[in-house]
Specification:
Number of domains: 2
Mean pLDDT: 82
Number of helices: 5
Keywords: Chemotaxis, Coiled coil, Transducer
CATH architecture of the largest domain: Orthogonal Bundle
Strand content: under 5%
CATH class of the largest domain: Mainly Alpha
Pfam families: MCPsignal (PF00015)
Shape: rod-shaped
Family: Belongs to the methyl-accepting chemotaxis (MCP) protein family.
Organism: Aliarcobacter cibarius
InterPro entries: Chemotax_Me-accpt_rcpt (IPR004090), MCP_chemotaxis (IPR051310), MCPsignal_dom (IPR004089)
C-alpha cells in the first residue's frame, strides 16, 4: 500500500499515532504535525491525516469552549444568576444538544424566577394585586411554589383588606374613646379643682369656726372677769358713797367748828374793842395795853377772815361731796344694769360657744368626708389620665395602622 516503508518510517508513524492518542485524550495541548518525511506516499498520508486531525482539533476546541461556558454558566446558576446563556456552539451534535438543552433550561428558570421575583417585589412593596400566571410547562416543585406564592398573595390581600377595614373602625372608635376620655379627664380635673377649692373653703371655715369658738371661750372668760370687775366696781362705788356720807358728816362738824371759831373771833373782837376803850380811858398808863388790844383785834379779824374762807371751802367741799355721792349712786345703778347685761351676754356667749363646738364637730366630719372624696377624685384623675394616655396611644396606633393599610394595594 505504501510502497517500501522503512523501519524509521514505521517508527515515525507509531510516534505520530501515539501523539494523536495523547492529543485526543487531552494529555497534550498542542499537536506537532508532520508535513514532510521525504517519502511522497507517506507525506500524502500524513497530509490527509493532518487535515483530519485539524478538523478534530477544531471541533474539540469548539467543544471545550462550549464546555467551558457550561462550567461558567453552572457556576453562575449556583450563585443564583439565571440570565446567563451559553453563546458558543459546536458541530458536535451531542455538545450542541447539551448547549441548547441547557439554554432552554436557563430560559425556563429565568422566566420562572422573573415571575416569582416580580410578584414577591410587588408584595414587598405592599401591592398584593399581582399574581403568577402558572403555565402548563411548570411541573412539580416549581408549579407548587408558584401556586403557594399566589395563595400567599391572596392571604396577604385579605389581611390588608381586613386591616384597612379594622383600621377604619378602630380609628373611629379610638377617636370617640379619646374624645370621651378627654371630656371625662376635663370634667374630672374640674371636679378635682372644685373639690380642692371646697376643701380649702371648708378648711378655712373650720379654722374660722375654731377661732370663733376659742374667741367665744375667751370672751366668756373675759365676761366673767368683767363681771367680777363690775361687782368690785359696784362695791367700790358703794364704799365711795359711804365715804361721801362720812365726809359730809365731817364737813357738817367742821361747819359747826367754824361757827364756834367765828363766834370766838367776834367775841374776841368785842373784847379787844372794850380793851381799847379802857386803855384810852386809862390814859398814859393804858397805852401798852392799847397796843395789845389792837393786836388782839387784828388777830380776831384775821381769824374771822380765815374762818370765813374755810367756811367757803367747806361749803364747796360739801357741794363736791354731794355731787360725788350722786355720781356714786349713778355708778351703782349703772354697775347693776351693766352686771345684768354682762350676765345675759355671758349666757349668750356660752350658748354661741357650745353651738360653735357642735358646729366645728360637724364641719370636721364634713371636712373628713370632703378629704376622702378629694382623695378618691384625685385617684380618679390619675386613672382618667392613664386611660386617656392609653386612648391616645390606641388612637395613634389606629391611625398608623390605617396609614399602613392605606399604603397597601389590594383587591
Amino acid at each position: 500500500m505504501f510502497g517500501a516503508i522503512s523501519n524509521k518510517d514505521l517508527e515515525t508513524i507509531d510516534n505520530y499515532f501515539k501523539q494523536f492518542i495523547k492529543f485526543i485524550s487531552y494529555d497534550k495541548n498542542e499537536f506537532n504535525y508532520i508535513e514532510s518525511t521525504g517519502n511522497k506516499k507517506l507525506d500524502s498520508m500524513f497530509k490527509s491525516w493532518n487535515e483530519q486531525i485539524k478538523t478534530i482539533d477544531k471541533r474539540n476546541k469548539e467543544d471545550m469552549k462550549v464546555l467551558g461556558e457550561i462550567v461558567l454558566t453552572a457556576d453562575k446558576v449556583e450563585q443564583g444568576i439565571y440570565k446567563c446563556r451559553i453563546k458558543g456552539n459546536s458541530s458536535n451534535p451531542t455538545i450542541s444538544t447539551l448547549r441548547n438543552t441547557l439554554n432552554k433550561m436557563l430560559v425556563s428558570i429565568d422566566d420562572a424566577t422573573s415571575r416569582l421575583l416580580r410578584v414577591v417585589n410587588s408584595y414587598t412593596n405592599n401591592d398584593f394585586t399581582d399574581s403568577i400566571k402558572v403555565v402548563d410547562k411548570y411541573k412539580e416543585e416549581m408549579r407548587s411554589l408558584m401556586e403557594s406564592i399566589n395563595v400567599l398573595g391572596k392571604v396577604l390581600n385579605d389581611n390588608a383588606r381586613n386591616n384597612y377595614n379594622n383600621g377604619e373602625v378602630l380609628e373611629k372608635n379610638s377617636f370617640v374613646m379619646t374624645s370621651s376620655m378627654n371630656n371625662l379627664a376635663s370634667k374630672t380635673n374640674e371636679q378635682a379643682a372644685s373639690l380642692e377649692q371646697t376643701s380649702a373653703a371648708i378648711e378655712e371655715i373650720t379654722n374660722i369656726t375654731r377661732n370663733n369658738t376659742q374667741n367665744a371661750t375667751k370672751m366668756a372668760s373675759l365676761g366673767h372677769i368683767v363681771k367680777k370687775s363690775v361687782l368690785e366696781g359696784e362695791d367700790l362705788a358703794s364704799k365711795t358713797a359711804k365715804s361721801m356720807d362720812e365726809i359730809n358728816d365731817k364737813v357738817k362738824a367742821i361747819n359747826e367748828s367754824i361757827s364756834i371759831i367765828d363766834q370766838i373771833a367776834f367775841q374776841t373782837n368785842i373784847l379787844s374793842l372794850n380793851a381799847a376803850v379802857e386803855a384810852a380811858t386809862a390814859g398814859e398808863a393804858g397805852k401798852g395795853f392799847a397796843v395789845v388790844a389792837q393786836e388782839v383785834r387784828n388777830l380776831a379779824s384775821r381769824s374771822a377772815e380765815a374762818a370765813h374762807e374755810i367756811k367757803n371751802l367747806v361749803e364747796e367741799a360739801t357741794l363736791k361731796a354731794n355731787d360725788g355721792k350722786k355720781v356714786s349712786s349713778d355708778m351703782i345703778n349703772g354697775y347693776e344694769e351693766l352686771n345684768n347685761n354682762i350676765t345675759q351676754t355671758i349666757q349668750i356667749i356660752e350658748d354661741v360657744s357650745n353651738a360653735s363646738k357642735e358646729q366645728i364637730t360637724r364641719i370636721e366630719q364634713i371636712n373628713q368626708a370632703v378629704d376622702m372624696l378629694d382623695r378618691f377624685t384625685q385617684e380618679n384623675v390619675a386613672e382618667s389620665n392613664q386611660v386617656k394616655a392609653i386612648a391616645q396611644n390606641v388612637s395613634k396606633l389606629a391611625h398608623q395602622l390605617l396609614i399602613d393599610a392605606q399604603s397597601k394595594k389590594f383587591n
